[in-house]
Design a protein that fits this description.
alpha+beta, 25% strand, SH3 type barrels, WCX_dom, WYL_dom, PafC-like, 39% helix, WYL domain-containing protein, Arc Repressor Mutant, subunit A, elongated, single chain, 330 residues
């Protein structure tokens, strides 16, 4: 949906509200200037013959409350798809857009017969379910602030919490792009001036955000496609390394059914096992992923990854070899 169309829908909703609407008031709500509001109202009058009038007592208002914007023609299927899209965003992306989507869909639904809308809602509620894993506490204001900064190529200041060190830091970042990994993990990818390299930041770990009065130019050496293809899950940085992992026959079907990485190559073995090869930056996420398959996976290389697995398994063995006190139930 274009920004102009979104603004027209918002103006339409304001004109139908009981509050007195003026150009300055609507401009403040929509965060545009008064001239933009007046141009949009003139557009509604000229293009769609909208019955918009202004009076000192009522401000801008519709003289015919039954008039509807004819600019949007949606089939039941299209509106249903939008409704499901809203449900998916609510479930998977931290609800950053859910209030705006709900409002837009409700306005669009006004163009369908009431019973049709009720039927669509019932199907969405009773026949289709979306479920995510662990939820994130995403602040919509921070997310939208990053959207604006990335679009305007504006540098931002962030106060960031690093979970691995349980510490806070402050830094200036050039926001290159926003990435939602697996639907529930929102990331800011950008150039960190503190580390002098492109880094990933979990958006829900950004405690504070300020837009700085400093424009930036994206590093011409940064290629989004190449950068994303070298990453396994969400770990970025480090020297590219080629890993080889063997999966036994019972585990192999789960490896074959997905594409885990853009560089992956699978080598089939006569006994039904399979060897996966891929080139990645960073080994920590690979280590955690391999551990999830237990004895069904074995690292063949590189030595650095093999040592990481050995150390982790030894530490786990030590941890579980100690006697664990059992609490008595009351």
């Amino acid at each position: 949906m274009s920004r102009h169309l979104e603004r027209l829908l918002a103006i339409d909703a304001l004109l139908r509200s009981p509050e007195r609407q003026t150009a300055p008031a609507m401009a403040a709500v929509l965060e545009v200037n008064e001239r933009t509001i007046r141009n949009d109202i003139a557009f509604l009058r000229d293009r769609y013959s909208a019955p918009v009038r202004y009076s000192k007592t009522r401000g801008f208002h519709y003289t015919d409350s039954d008039w509807r914007l004819p600019s949007i023609s949606l089939s039941k299927g299209e509106l249903f798809a939008l409704m499901l899209g809203a449900r998916m965003l609510e479930t998977y992306s931290g609800s950053a857009y859910i209030s705006e989507l709900r409002s837009a869909i409700e306005r669009l639904a006004e163009r369908l017969p009431e019973q049709t809308w009720i039927d669509l809602q019932q199907v969405a509620d009773e026949r289709i379910s979306f479920r995510s894993g662990a939820e994130t506490n995403l602040d919509p204001e921070i997310w939208h602030g990053l959207e604006v900064a990335a679009q305007a190529s504006q540098q931002v200041w962030i106060r960031y919490y690093t979970a691995s060190r349980d510490a806070y830091s402050e830094r200036a970042v050039d926001p290159y792009l926003l990435h939602i990994y697996r639907g529930t993990n929102p990331y800011l990818i950008g150039f960190c001036h503190k580390r002098q390299e492109v880094r990933w930041f979990r958006v829900d770990r950004i405690q504070e955000l300020r837009q700085l009065n400093q424009a930036f130019v994206r590093d011409p050496k940064f290629n989004e496609k190449d950068h994303m293809e070298m990453i396994f899950q969400h770990e970025a940085g480090g020297v590219p390394m080629t890993v080889h992992i063997w999966f036994d026959a019972p585990t192999a079907p789960y490896i074959r059914e997905r594409r885990w990485h853009g560089s992956q190559k699978l080598a089939e073995q006569e006994d039904g096992s399979v060897t996966l090869q891929m080139t990645v930056r960073g080994l920590n996420d690979v280590k955690r992923w391999i551990l999830g398959y237990g004895k069904g996976a074995r690292v063949l290389g590189p030595p650095a990854l093999l040592n990481m697995l050995r150390n982790e398994i030894q530490d786990m063995q030590q941890q579980y070899s100690n006697e664990i006190p059992v609490r008595e139930s009351k």
